[in-house]
Amino acid sequence: MCSAIRYVMTDRISEIIASYHCRVMAMPFVPTTSYGRSSYGHNGIATKFFLTLLFSDKALSLEFLYDVGLLLSKFTCPTCGNSMVLYAEPKLKDGYRFRCRRRIYASRCAGSMSIKHGSWFEHCNLTLAEVMFLTYDIVRRVPSHAIQREHQFGSSTIANWGQYCREIMLEYVKGSSQRIGGPNKTVEIDESKFGRRKDGKGAQWVFGGVERESGKTFLVPVQDRTPDTLMTVISDWIEPGTTVISDCSVAYRDLEAHGYTHETVRRTIGFVDQQTGAHINTIKSTWHHAKAYLRAYNRKKDYIYDLAQYMFTARCRAENVDEFTKFIHIVSNRDWSHPSSHNDAAGAM
Length: 349
Ligand SMILES: [Zn+2]
Fold this sequence. Notes:
By secondary structure, the chain is α+β, with helices and mostly antiparallel strands. The chain is built from 10 helices and 12 strands. Helices cover 37% and strands 15% of the residues. The strands form 4 sheets. It has a 5-stranded mixed sheet, with helices on both faces. A 3-stranded antiparallel sheet has the order 3-4-7, with no helix packed on it. The longest helix is centred in the middle third of the chain and has 21 residues. Bound molecules: zinc ion (ZN).
């Protein structure tokens, strides 16, 4: 029904944002700024103010959504197969609808389609602008209470869209994971317990590795910390020939046999080995950031989704791309005729 011929790269989305930034700046009511500074977005990075101005003009914002690929621009009529045309309909919240209007004898085909069909915006009663604001805030990690104060969304709307966005991030980080390490590369590995309950129930061990040279990271929830489990994860995620640094846990005793160079840190004297200088400070720092991040959200369960957002943000930083631009890129190129992978949280990120 929808023609999904679209693939827009992250760079291309930045260019599109930059070009709309110029058009928004030309609006008559945009305040001037000192020293040529811009609060509307620069270098192809969108700000909330940019979105607010953009979505004050329904036609301009719609054009933007078609350009970045967030909305599909071509539909064939579900009734007769004719191609449909976009009509302005001021009574509708978003102001537009696709209609067929093909002449059939004395009458016309009544086929019509929501502009949200087959997109990120489908199946929700919020306007296009509201979905964009909500998505923006969630991706930019604005706290729920601040989103509520600014937009008056219900707390369940915010929670649902938060979950929805983080499912996309989880799908992305799982689908785009790359093995790290290799000859002349050093990877620090470690395990850490996530989940804050004192009785230990609901807690989850996470195994992680960080490539020092690039900062590339993987985090994998594991059922236990037996040598078999951990060696399987290591073989899956770290290239042979890598220098792997860990603590002295017996779980890692077979690393050399599996083709890795192994250095250890004796934990009793801190995270730096006094004799060899080996340390696992980078992975320790990852745990620190990830846990601080999860605490900020104060979530007791579903930490896997928050961890996914943490990983998503970290990956954007490593790639030097803006996370909202990246998120638009992922959502634009996703096929919305298939539902997201709900409850498929197991596996590596
Ligand atoms: Zn038709």
